[in-house]
Specification:
Length: 387
Amino acid sequence: MSTLEDVFREQWSRVLASLVGFLGDFDKAEEAVQEAFVIAAHRWPTEGTPSSPAAWLTTTARNRAIDRIRRERTLAEKIHLLPVPEAVMDEFDDAVIKDERLELIFTCCHPALPLDGQVALTLRALGGLQTAEIARAFLVSEETMKRRLTRAKNKIKAAGIPFAVPAAHLLPDRLDAVLAVIYLIYNEGYSGRVDLGAEAISLGQVLTALMPDEPEVHGLLALMMIHHARRRARFSGEDLVLLDDQDRSLWDRPQLAAGRALLDRAIALGGRGPYVVQAAIASLQTREQIDWPQVAKLYRRLVELTSSLVVELNYAVAVAQAGDPAKALRTVDRLELDGYLYFHSTRGELLRRLHRDAEAKASYRRALDLATTTPERRFLARQLERL
């Protein structure tokens, strides 16, 4: 039998999506869903978990929302505008309840919302994280995060942002924004603050279930899972461990295999976009013998797709690993990334390989000045000690 906590993690987004679609109001929907879970916490221990927890919770939440609207005199007439009559406990089952999470994802990631609002609302609505948890993940106060969420919800209401999947001609751009938000969430976790990586993977799994024929959706999930499979090996205590030095016995092999299978699916769907290419690079880098010329070739393709200076920096790293640090340094020296930590640490490593130690020290010191985390600072200090 599932615990209520398990059900919450599994069903929160689906039940909330149904209520947002039903009521057209985030706050009222959240209040109703929270009430439904409170009722479940009281009843299920004695009455047992229903055979269809999502249907039970959705029905209960809808009933509570209708009751609340009826009690609010200023909204009394709105009850006649609701699209369905009052529900009874056995009226719905999973086959009847429409899964509206896709509409919810596109609402949370609407470009009219500021990016920090998109991220916060996605984690709250789709991930089921509490406001305090999201605040801790992004190193802000709970009150700041509460205001961020409130502003995003108010913007949705004031701007009349539709609870809907975008029209076909708008879908590619809007999907790119959704994928970018999910990957941003993943990268916040990958930096080591909080394991938001698992939350992002969960969001990616929801999206692949809802959009099974979109190769970039599979590509992003593959990328995150392949990276996440190496999470335990990335640190030794507080020390950052580079790929070449990682203990591969710590890698999550089932997750790695699942990521590779998703990559195969993305390619079979004709995927050639940036997330599919990044996933292919990540997969190659987990092989026993890394084909660095092929990695460099894929990074060059990624530069063409993204025009990103950071991607071009990674291309240079792959060129160096393939055996040509001089060419890599020429590439790096063309990049305008002076404020970027990894530009200077990469340049320092290339100079070290070319036996230009004094210049390498200067680059590592500049990188150390830009480092913001203890693992980064410890790693760079060790590199300086080697010279």
